[in-house]
Amino acid sequence: MSDSVPAVAYLTVDVESAGQRLDNYLLRELKGAPKTLIYRIIRSGEVRVNKARARAETRLQAGDVVRVPPLRLAAPAAPPAVPRAPAREFDVLYEDDWLLALNKPAGVAVHGGSGVSYGVIEQLRRARPQAALLELVHRLDRDTSGVLLVAKKRSALKALQDQFRQRSTGKVYLALVRGDWPAARKVIDVPLQRYLLPDGERRVRVVAPDDPLGQPALSLVRPLGRVTPPPSCPTPADAGTTLLAVTIKTGRTHQIRVHLAHVGHPIAGDDKYGDYAWNRALARCGLARMFLHAWRLTLRHPVDGRVLQLQAPVPAELRDWGDVARFLE
To answer: Does residue 62 have a pLDDT over 80?
Structure first.
């Protein structure tokens, strides 16, 4: 057991955790805490949300402050030495004194954790040691490229996260999926639930509308056209590929990937929810990454309120695959 004196902790709920139940949030945040302890401190009123008592089923919102009483937990094993993040700048789409919009490359995590030593934000901070504040406004999956927002002032961070929470931003992704997308299917409105695999890896699944652990998730889909693969591609003709513009009205973890796979049109190259045999075939003809790109983001400037319309150029490995480029003109 740890010899240090435990103290009250205050946890601020981030955008990704918005809508989660209090008990599930604490189980994730308080590593090593038994479930019986979590439920006991909630029932006793020792856990407070924004200074008020809360129930286990209370749904949290981004920005909520959760008070956790002093807990004496088993001391974690000493972490392995973590390599220091190298300094790195990323392609800048927009920058002023309050915010920074980057074009995140695929294959780079947005932050360290879960087996990743460092990500975009750690490398950016090393490259800009003079910056008083650099904080992620939202997240992108490691294998997703495109627009990523970073706040440079605390006031801008709160204002921008409020826009994401209130669903007033416009987020459009490009996704290449298997099969011919039916023109009549324009909306996917099914709730999602996060869970962990036995090895601790995070996953997401579709759940029934009345599932108490489900989080609302809404995606709007517009097909841009059927993509013709490269002539040498061994992908069967009946598999087909369709390029989609997907607008998400909620920002759930892996939302687009799970929604599209759920309706039978997995994203090309998706190694978690996709068609593995199809992915291997695509890799042999030049598509070696997931085809998901955060293409456009519309929001209001956190200070003067003007509309910012940000667009991240489509990476060459996606744009030049087959005849994708003709749909982007």
So the answer is: yes
- Residue 37, SS3? helix
- pLDDT at res. 1: 42
**14/30 Cα distance (integer angstroms):** 15
Q: What are the structure tokens assigned to 237, written together?
A: 């003709």
324: left (phi over 0), alpha (psi -120 to 50) or beta: alpha
Buried b (16+ CB within 10 A) or exposed e, 147-157: bbbbbbbeebb
pLDDT in tens, 79-95: 566 578 899 999 999 99
What 3-state class would DSSP assign to 79? coil
Q: Which helix (H) or strand (E) holds 160?
A: helix 154-165
What is the largest distance, in Å, between two alpha-carbon atoms of the chain? Answer: 67
- pLDDT tens profile 215-261: 999 999 999 999 999 987 865 545 689 999 999 999 899 999 999 99
Catalytic residue among 64, 141, 270, 275: 141
Cα–Cα distance measured from residue 120 to residue 150, given in angstroms and rounded to the nearest whole number: 10
**Is 91 in the active site?**
no
Q: What is the mean pLDDT of residues 140-147?
A: 96
Encode burial over 271-301: b for 16+ CB neighbours within 10 A, e otherwise.
ebbbbeebbebbeebebebbbbbbbbbebeb
pTM recorded for the entire structure: 0.75
Cα distance between residue 113 and residue 102, in whole Å: 20
Q: What are phi and psi of 210, to 5 degrees?
A: -95, 10
- 15-56: pLDDT as tens digits: 767 778 898 889 888 877 888 899 999 999 999 999 999 998
- Domains of the chain, with CATH numbers? 9-68 (3.10.290.10), 92-327 (3.30.2350.10)
The pLDDT assigned to 20 comes to: 82
